Amino acid sequence: MASSQKNWLVWKKYAPLNRFACKSIRRMITAPTWPVRYLLETLITQSEPSIPELLFGGGTPRKAAMTALVVGTVLTGINHGDGILAGDYPPVVKIILTYCVPYCVTSWGAATGKLAQYRDNQAKVVLHEEVRR
To answer: Which long-range contacts (CB under 8 A, 24 or more apart) does 27-30 make?
Structure first.
């Protein structure tokens, strides 16, 4: 018996048992790995939310304003409290910047957190699709 016939008989004997394993091996050989596939699908089919969407959507401005109000008041009291109590008021620009910094930090943190969550969700979707196949 030729070796090709022998291989065919072995394949024919074990093929019904290994049907799912053979399909998954064939897929592993032909399909790109999941990070590459994730990258391709993200770039081709879905776009990430834009920076304005991240900064001004989902209640971010309200949360940032509340944080700026609390943290800005505390920082103003720490940095300029003795001058204010003495009746010597600091320049208005410094007070405005004291409130702007926590607002910007909170907005940036919320935007990067939303973007990381979006990317993580997309990776889970692609991974789930890979497992499902």
So the answer is: 27/133
CB of 68 within 8 A of CB of 106? yes
Residues 71 and 122 in one domain: yes
- The total number of structural domains in the chain stands at 2
Q: What's the DSSP call for residue 16?
A: T
What is the reported pTM?
A: 0.59
- pLDDT tens-place string over residues 54-101: 889 889 999 999 999 999 999 999 999 999 999 998 999 999 999 999
SS3 15: coil
Average pLDDT, rounded, for the chain:
76
What's the CA gap between 120 and 111, in Å, rounded? 14
Full residue range of the structural domain in which residue 48 is found? 33-132
113: left (phi over 0), alpha (psi -120 to 50) or beta: alpha
Please check whether residues 85 and 58 belong to one and the same domain. yes
Which position has the higher pLDDT, 112 or 37? 112
